Please model this.
Amino acid sequence: MTDNPRGARILLRTMRPRPAPLLRGLLLLLIACAARGADTGLFIGHVWARPTPPGATVGAVYLDLNNQGTSPERLLRLSSPVAGAVQLHETRDEHGLMKMRQLPFIDVPAGGTVKAAPGALHIMLLGLKKPLLDGDTFALKLLFAAAGELTVQVRVRTDR
Ligand SMILES: [Cu+2]
Model:
């Protein structure tokens, strides 16, 4: 990152999902670090999902995105082998009705933390291929504008 701050900024501005060439080389290292973007100061913690009832086709994942770096970061896309699609969602109270809407991306300011939690920001699993059972873990892949691709393990539990 420090070698190519301009490149990272262009990526953020144009929202191109492809990581900068420099970062592509770091991909293996990033995957090895799992929940941590090695040189970017990006940390992903408290990754969990609620169990789903039998027959449910949707689920939600919650996590903390902590950017200890000096540049803003943007979460662009997600995927998981347990779901047909993964979306960024926000729950809002509209005149007493809780409504969800999809977000195109999530920004994490430099030095800031964004929390996805029940009743607020969440990661929506659509087209679940099987129920999420208490104690299970599954992979969630996140694509960031600067840090590139990170994979975390989501733990299924009734409470965090
Ligand atoms: Cu949702």
The radius of gyration is 16 Å. Residues 5-14 form the longest helix (10 residues).
